[in-house]
């Protein structure tokens, strides 16, 4: 199973909201995945921002992020996504 994280950039133009999307996908070993989840959990618990590098691109998750867990299924496959979403300030 791969780890999936989507990075959404919001752009405002007058009264219109345009969304551009850039997806970055990187597969991790079980130990790497556990380590990243543990760091994320520690950051959430302590109210600190979280920094992660995915495929060489640094991502900063602010402490104001909203967290969801999503389950998708189809064609004999299942997927669980742990998501952190936030708006740029």
Topology:
Layout: E1 3-13, E2 16-26, H1 30-46, E3 50-54, E4 57-61, E5 66-74, E6 77-85
Antiparallel strand pairs: 1-2, 3-4, 5-6
Key descriptive features of the protein:
89 residues; alpha+beta; two-stranded antiparallel ribbon
Compact description:
By secondary structure, the chain is an alpha+beta fold. Helices cover 19% and strands 56% of the residues.
Architecture overview:
- This protein has 89 residues and is of the alpha+beta class.
- It has one domain.
- It has 1 helix and 6 strands, in the order ββαββββ.
- The protein has one helix spanning 30-46, and strands at 3-13, 16-26, 50-54, 57-61, 66-74, 77-85.
- Strands 1-2 form a two-stranded antiparallel sheet. The chain has a two-stranded antiparallel sheet with strand order 3-4. It has a two-stranded antiparallel sheet with strand order 5-6.
- Strand 3 and strand 4 (57-61) form a beta hairpin.
- It starts with a strand and ends with a strand.
> How far is the first residue's CA from the last residue's CA?
33 Å
| Separate helix tally | 1
Q: Give the averaged pLDDT, no decimals.
A: 79
Number of domains: 1
Proportion of residues in helical segments: 10-25%
The strand count comes to: 6
Order of helices and strands: EEHEEEE
Broad shape: globular
What ranges have pLDDT less than 50 throughout 5 or more consecutive residues?
1-20
Strand content: over 45%
Judged by helices, strands and strand pairing, the structural class is: alpha+beta
Please state the CA-atom Rg, rounded to the nearest Å: 15 Å
Strand order of the largest sheet: 1-2
Largest sheet: 2 strands, antiparallel
């Amino acid at each position: 199973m791969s780890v999936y994280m989507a990075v959404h950039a919001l752009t405002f133009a007058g009264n219109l909201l345009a969304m551009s999307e850039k997806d970055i996908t990187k597969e991790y070993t079980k130990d790497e995945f556990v380590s990243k989840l543990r760091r994320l959990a520690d950051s959430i618990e302590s109210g600190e921002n979280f920094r992660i590098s995915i495929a060489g691109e640094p991502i900063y998750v602010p402490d104001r992020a909203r967290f969801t867990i999503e389950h998708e299924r189809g064609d004999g496959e299942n997927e669980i996504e742990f998501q952190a979403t936030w708006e740029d300030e």
